[in-house]
Amino acid sequence: MDRAQTERVAYGLIILACFTVLSWLNGRYVGSGAGQVATYTLLGLIIALACLAGLAGLVLAINPTLRASGGFTSAWDAVARGYLLALPFALLALLADLAFGWGAATAFMQAAIMTSGAAVGAELMRTSGQKTIHMLVTMAGAFAFSIIWIAYSAIFTKAVG
Amino acid sequence: MHRSEANQEQDSGLQQQYLTAPANITQNRAFGTYLRSALSMILNPAQVVKGALDRVPWPLCLSISGLAFTLFFLQTGLDMHRVGTASAGAAVGFTFLGTALGTIGVALVAALAWACSRPLGCERSLEWTVRAFCLAYTPTLIFCVVGLVINLAAGWNTAIAFGVTGVLWALYPVITIVREMTAEKLAASLLISTVCGALVLCGWALLGI
Q1: What's the gap in Å between the CA of B60 and the closest CA on chain A?
Q2: Closest by Cα among A120, A105, A99 to A52
Q3: For chain A, which residues score pLDDT lower than 50?
Q4: What is the C-alpha to C-alpha distance for residues B145 and A7, in angstroms, rounded to an integer?
Q5: I want to staple B179 with a disulfide (CB 3.0 to 4.6 A). Which of A30, A86, B16, B189 is the partner?
Q6: Whose CA is closest to A124, among A51, A64, A70, A68?
Q7: What is the pLDDT, as a whole number, of residue B37?
Q8: φ, ψ at B57 (rounded to 5°)
Q9: Is the overall model pTM greater than 0.90, yes or no?
Q10: Contact A111/B168, CB-based, under 8 Å?
Q11: Side-chain half-sphere of A72: how many Cα atoms within 13 Å?
Q12: Do B172 and A119 touch (CB under 8 A)?
């Protein structure tokens, strides 16, 4: 396995772990009982990964350099590098929830989604000669991701009664 | 005329124009640069970190983080006063604690990050680090101003929804600053930033609630 593949797997696992933690912390307030929390966490993880794939698709659509270099894989790598920023948010969310009992997992989730989206946009701007469109599109994508998450939580709460 | 001579003439002309411009116009331009640098910290901090940060005066940087935490703690005090767990005097006291955390506390956290980054190839000065960390709390200030308006106008409890969210938004500029200080070492910068973020949140938890 070459360095790029190793990084891709490592970044993927870190992001998976971060969204599992954030989703689980959110689920503790949305669902009641281990079954509901586990269902919420699993569905949340699927939604998060689908949103990240959607964001990678958006990035690919606006960036001809990525389309020429490696297609979706390159776009996914760019998104994954930005979303590594979710790691401090996940760790701090654990601290806030388990040590202080703040119940602010949603704030941590939203901040992680939006700031990581900004990081993706800033990185794409840097590599593409400061084109603002990259920041606008990735921020719009991150905003959509955050709205989808809020909607998912609301729908789940309604569904489980 | 030779090209370099023409450029020199143009540069000296611009300098002359800048020097002879009325003081208020020069001040407005400088203030505009500071404002742009502060706002860039929200979405594209790398641009500020690698560029205009040295030109932003340190009192402005310190007042941004100081004011951000002052308003954050004021909201905490107001929330606690509203639910009956703090008196009006305690709410005012929290506000001063916020000022202390936003200035002395943030400077100490910056100093810790600087000390941790030294063995990893940090070439930036302590003054630069403190200045950068203070400016990183621009998003916190914006969230706290909006939160305070909603707190006072609608009577909502906003300390967590706006205050904590604002502090979390500052993590992105902090990570970018630490990355610059550790010569782009991602793992180390994530670790140091997490510790810095945890210290600030713990500071709020211990002082404010």
Answers
A1: 24
A2: A120
A3: none
A4: 40
A5: B189
A6: A64
A7: 77
A8: -65, 145
A9: no
A10: yes
A11: 5
A12: yes
- CA–CA distance, B160 with B145 (Å, rounded to integer): 14
- Whether B45 and chain A come into contact, CB under 8 Å, resolves to yes
Residue type, A77: D
B58-80 in b/e form (b: 16+ CB < 10 A) is eebbbbbbbbbbbbbbbbbbbbb
Separation of CA A63 from chain center: 20
The minimal CB distance from A107 to the residues B168, B186, B197 is found for B168
Confirm or reject contact between A146 and chain B (CB < 8 A): no
Mean pLDDT, to the nearest integer, of B100-127?
94
Residue A69: its pLDDT value, please? Answer: 85
Compute how many other C-beta atoms are within 10 angstroms of the C-beta atom of residue A16: 13
* Residue B167 to residue B181: CA distance in whole angstroms: 21
> Residue B57 burial by CB count (10 A; 0-12/13-18/19+): exposed, middle or buried?
exposed
Query: What does the DSSP 8-state code read for residue B103?
Result: I
Three-class DSSP category at B51:
coil
3-state secondary structure chain A: CCHHHHHHHHHHHHHHHHHHHHHHHHHHHHCCCHHHHHHHHHHHHHHHHHHHHHHHHHHHHHCHHHHHHCCHHHHHHHHHHHHCCHHHHHHHHHHHHHHHCCCCHHHHHHHHHHHHHHHHHHHHHHHCCCCHHHHHHHHHHHHHHHHHHHHHHHHHHHHHC
Instruction: Name chain B contacts of A114, Cβ cutoff 8 Å.
Output: 169
d(CA A120, CA A97): 27
> Residue B23 has what pLDDT?
65
